[in-house]
Design goal:
single chain; 368 residues; 9 strands; globular
């Protein structure tokens, strides 16, 4: 039994017919419920629900404050290697792309950590390309031991691991995992992942469960908007988060809404998530998943991110750079994608405070 069973049930569902027959009265009833069903969630994701965003926003804001208070937690990403063995058509790290690649030595990881720690942020997201032979678990462990000297929370966004490998990382201080399915539609998944281990749909889909079984405290999932049908992808990613939340009570789950930005390889999406739909999805997630964190990265422009404060989001990345060694001005490498919010950590903090919200640098520390 895995979330794939839920996806299989959805394959026979006539989404177009359901949306055509959905009424505004049904959407209003879904908005007012304290506990939403799967169909209530789908109602809030429907195109017709765009007429009810103001009411959704008021309830989303109230429930978010009840659950989390008026806070935005900050984290910062750190890339330590951009070598990759996969052939993902939408990713700048695709092994076939002729980019400047770099793999940090341990002393270079330490230099990056020292520079990032100067920002005051205490949570770091450690990222690599998916090159298991070069970036083995032992290398990740050595990197984590260095990062734990400078940061209270270390979360990994690397290639999928076995449960026991996540357990190894947990024992030395990794407390969280970020893993995006990228696209839940299995046919599209196979069409955009042309080679490498990432082309294994099931291996990736079941990764969050392996992380939870290993005892990781926080797990962040999501779909990469732009690869598949927008409503279907938002729906399945929300159902995935609900499935995990109900099954693994000792882990906290959050969801991200990354949109495809420009990357090496020139991938052009035919599914464009506009800002209004983005806001609608945030509100729908908040009402359906009241205890889940909602993460907005620097893929989004500054003004748009600021306007999302108060609508249910709980986490921001800040001061991000997506090329290896960028914080300590090491020899430059090609970024994975172009970020849209180029503000410094300090500028991001000022914007959050201007909205009446508190900036959180540290809300967790794993003692190892």
């Amino acid at each position: 039994m895995s979330f794939y069973n839920e996806i299989e049930k959805f394959k026979d569902f006539d989404m177009e017919k359901y949306m055509d027959e959905l009424t505004h009265e049904e959407i209003k009833r879904s908005i007012k419920k304290d506990k939403l069903t799967k169909f209530d969630f789908l109602n809030l994701l429907s195109p017709k629900a765009k007429d009810h965003l103001e009411e959704m926003a008021k309830i989303a804001q109230r429930r978010s404050i009840q659950q989390f208070g008026k806070i935005i937690s900050l984290y910062i990403p750190m890339y330590i290697s951009n070598y990759c063995t996969n052939e993902c058509t939408y990713c700048g790290f695709n092994k076939n792309n002729k980019i400047d690649r770099k793999h940090l030595k341990l002393n270079e990881i330490e230099a990056e950590a020292v520079e990032i720690a100067k920002t005051g942020i205490r949570h770091i997201l450690l990222l690599t390309g998916e090159a298991e032979g070069l970036v083995g678990v032992g290398y990740i462990e050595d990197a984590v031991k260095i990062l734990k000297k400078h940061f209270d929370s270390v979360v990994v966004e690397i290639y999928p691991l076995e449960t026991e490998e996540y357990r190894r990382l947990g024992k030395i201080g990794v407390d969280g995992l970020t893993i995006y399915q990228e696209v839940y539609d299995e046919k599209i998944y196979k069409s955009v992942h042309l080679g490498g281990k990432k082309s294994d749909y099931m291996w990736r889909l079941e990764t969050p469960e392996r992380g939870a079984k290993a005892g990781l405290r926080s797990i962040n999932i999501g779909t990469l908007f732009g690869l598949g049908n927008l409503v279907e992808e938002a729906y399945l990613s929300g159902l995935h988060a609900k499935y995990l939340t109900d099954k693994y009570l000792n882990s906290e789950f959050s969801i991200s809404l990354p949109r495809i930005n420009d990357a090496e390889g020139g991938y052009k999406s035919k599914y464009i998530l506009d800002d209004a739909s983005f806001v609608q999805f945030v509100l729908a997630y908040r009402l359906f998943l009241p205890k889940a964190g909602i993460n907005i990265s620097t893929r989004e422009v500054a003004e748009f991110r600021d306007n999302l404060i108060g609508l249910g989001v709980t986490k921001f990345s800040a001061g991000s750079k997506t090329n290896v060694g960028a914080y300590s001005d090491l020899e430059k490498s090609t970024p994975q994608f172009e970020i849209s919010d180029n503000r410094s950590v300090e500028e991001t903090e000022k914007a959050i405070k201007a909205r009446g919200y508190q900036v959180v640098h540290k809300d967790w520390e794993l003692i190892v």
